[in-house]
Amino acid sequence: MEMVKKITVATLFSLLLISLLFAAPASAAVGGENLKVTIVETNPYPAKIGEYLTLTVQVENIGGSKADNVDIEIVPQYPFSLDSEANAIKNIGVLNPGRTATKEFYLFVDKNAQKGVRSIDIRTKTGKNSPWSEKSFDIRIGTETFNSKGTVELKEFVSDPEVFMPGDRGTVTVTLKNTASNPTVTIGGSDFDTNARIQAAVLRPLSEGIIVLDAPYGDMGLLGPGDSIKLTFNVKVAEDAPEGTHNFELAIEGNSFDYNSRKNIPLKVDSSNIRVIPSKELKLTNGESTIEFDVANTHPNEFSSVSIKPKAEGITFYPAEYFIGPMNPDELFTIEFNAITNDSWSASKEGEINMSLTANYNNGINRHANTVGDLRFANTSEIAESNSTTILTGGLIIISIPAAFMFYRRRKQ
């Protein structure tokens, strides 16, 4: 029995040691480079039989460290073939954490291909000596033809946030509706149902610096008369995207080619932010003061979780950070801080102290911060008014006593 216990303990210890050895590389890899591949555009969509197809492939480094030399390789299978084997591999180069890059590949769809969904493999690697990582994607070929007469139309679209800032991520949600009002319609003496089918829906950016992060929707099913469906696309605005209105094209494949449609969807980009302005003189008197600021939201849509944090060397502020919360466009708040010099600073030390204010806020899911610097805090020393009055009064009393005495002596003589 004792021997069994010893063997069991030894076995458990060995297993634990082995598991730690195998777990160590996995945990180390968490902070390494990690590539996410997405087909962000298929043009035309669905692919047309006997014609060329353009695939726009996006690679994003979702890891914690830099990828030194990223390659993308496309491995086509029938019915797809490359325009040239020399174009199978494309190099991106360095890809830092959180950054994305896109490359285009040109494929030919065989003239004898059948309608349906076919797969294609895309491989990536992070460096010259790194192994390839492979992922399979489905590509739709051809559009089925249905005799249904329902028409899919764009009812509305909503972007969140309503107005993006450069570098923001968010969503564009479109609502598609079957505009038919009756279950059947008679055309040329024949009855047809008014169902509408969404065979495909793709959102394509028409402006530089705007990226769609999702693959196209396919086979979204059937909509009865008056029914609607919402499709959400994840989008990103590049850090260097210009301000203004950018555009997407929403391409919808309906019951047949006659029922396809393309709609324009705008996206607004604006870099205006939270402004913080001193509303009275920034002045310390004998090492303490109450300071006041006006906080304004100059952005076209609401910000959430707005807070203001002051900072100055040798000064402690109360509160340490002022939380405002949500702010509507053009909304103005007036906030106050109590400022007190630290023990290491002399309250009588006169001059100017540099000060900064940092505004933190959310635009949709995106956290932003902007800092107002080069503010000057005047530090002065003053004698309290009550003390000066006492001294002045005391001086008058001292001066008046000799005068009264002299007047008394003169009267006595």
The CATH class of the largest domain is Mainly Beta
List unreliable stretches of 5+ residues. 1-7, 15-30, 387-413
Biggest sheet, open or closed, and with what strands and sense?
Answer: 5 strands, mixed
Tell me the span between the first and last alpha carbons: 129 Å
What is the gyration radius calculated from CA atoms?
Answer: 36 Å
Which whole number gives the mean pLDDT? 83
Number of helices: 2
Describe the structure.
By secondary structure, this protein is mainly beta. The protein folds into three domains: 35-141, Sandwich (Immunoglobulin-like); 152-269, Sandwich (Immunoglobulin-like); 274-380, Immunoglobulin-like. The protein is 14% helix and 54% strand. The chain contains two helices and 28 strands. The chain has helices spanning 2-30, 385-412, and strands at 35-43, 52-61, 67-75, 80-82, 89-95, 100-109, 116-125, 133-141, 152-160, 163-164, 169-178, 184-187, 190-193, 196-205, 210-212, 217-223, 228-237, 244-253, 261-269, 274-278, 283-285, 288-297, 303-312, 315-318, 322-327, 332-341, 351-363, 366-380. It has a five-stranded mixed β-sheet, with no helix packed on it. It is elongated, with a radius of gyration of 36 Å. The protein starts with a helix and ends with a helix. Residues 1-7, 15-30 and 387-413 have low confidence and may be disordered.
Summarize the structure.
The chain is mostly beta strands and 413 residues long. It is 14% helix and 54% strand.
What would the keywords be for this entry?
single chain; 413 residues; mainly beta; Immunoglobulin-like; 3 domains; five-stranded mixed β-sheet; disordered N terminus; disordered C terminus
